[in-house]
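Shipment paperwork, digital attachment
Item: protein structure file
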Amino acid sequence: MFELDDIQEDETNELEEVVMGLIINAGQARSLAYTALRKAKEGDFATAKSLMEQSHSSLNEAHKVQTQLIESDMGEGRIKVSLVLVHAQDHLMNAMLARELITELIELHEKLNR
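Attachment content:
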């Protein structure tokens, strides 16, 4: 991975690659969480737990990129805000919310399954 601090305005393609990584990891986290919920509905809580751990790992990767972007910008507007960056932030926040809610739903399914 490259240093986000070194991004110049003409290096938009490089920034877009980073942003796409954010979208991919956040999307993966969300998808794994919903798959875990389906497994919990089927009563396969061991697989659900494993999938939620994988989801957490993907979400951590996305969050690391977000943190690097924020630190690189330093509140000075150094990072060009584009529609794809806003889209990436939206993906990340949706994945975080989905994981939180799905964790609660899986716990409810476990209680009902006892």
